[in-house]
């Protein structure tokens, strides 16, 4: 619900975050714009990871992060099997974090699906973390169970993520780790030394007006699909190169 420039300025001046990830649903352009924003300000405090939230099979969300140049220029294919999706992220040089696991309110990996995914040694090498503090609606109610399952079974890095769709939500959940750079964060995820936290109370982190939620719903259900359809049609109408 904000432009990349608005997000970056907000993080720079209104939070103490060192690193953020712009990871739009099945989109990469916002993340690439954030990377350019940071490259134009080499002395700035905030770094932006290039990432995307992929809709895998059954629409379940997978968070792909840490892509490096040359960055992916197109979104990953949607609705592919989980293991195939993870393999594609690995091939592109990224890591996977499982967002808002066990959630009944948004498309998420359940306990059985995550266990099945992690049974693959190749997938386990790429799936680095799980959001044990997730700012998604109802995320706090899942925290205790997520931490218990992660400690006993999954043994992934604990991640705190605001899953922010509005500026005021940015930083409502966050991750701490040894160091301050993206390289340090990636190393901490692989070493399982990250910690997940909440910022303030649930009431403090949920002060988004109903009207703003309604606008977000309109954009996600109407504006975004229409924009994507136009892009597909434009691609179909583009002249083909070469003979044949």
Which helices and strands appear, and what pairs or packs with what?
Elements: H1 4-14, E1 19-22, H2 29-39, E2 47-50, E3 52-55, E4 61-65, H3 82-91, E5 95-98, H4 111-118, H5 121-126, E6 127-134, H6 139-154, E7 157-161, E8 173-176, H7 182-191, E9 195-198, H8 210-237
Parallel strand pairs: 1-2, 5-6, 6-7
Antiparallel strand pairs: 3-4, 4-5, 8-9
If you had to describe this structure to a student in words, what would you say it looks like?
There is one protein chain. This protein starts with a helix and ends in a 7-residue tail after the last helix. It has 2 domains: 4-207, Metal-dependent hydrolases (TIM Barrel, Alpha-Beta Barrel); 208-238. The protein has 244 residues and is α/β, with parallel strands linked by helices. The protein has 8 helices and 9 strands.
What is the overall silhouette? globular
Oligomer: single chain
Strand content is 15-25%
CATH topology of the largest domain: TIM Barrel
Elements, N to C (H/E): HEHEEEHEHHEHEEHEH
The CATH superfamily of the largest domain is Metal-dependent hydrolases
Mean pLDDT: 90
End-to-end Cα distance, whole Å, is 44 Å
Helix content: 40-55%
Briefly say what this structure is:
This protein has 244 residues and is an alpha/beta fold. The protein has helices at residues 4-14, 29-39, 82-91, 111-118, 121-126, 139-154, 182-191, 210-237, and strands at residues 19-22, 47-50, 52-55, 61-65, 95-98, 127-134, 157-161, 173-176, 195-198.
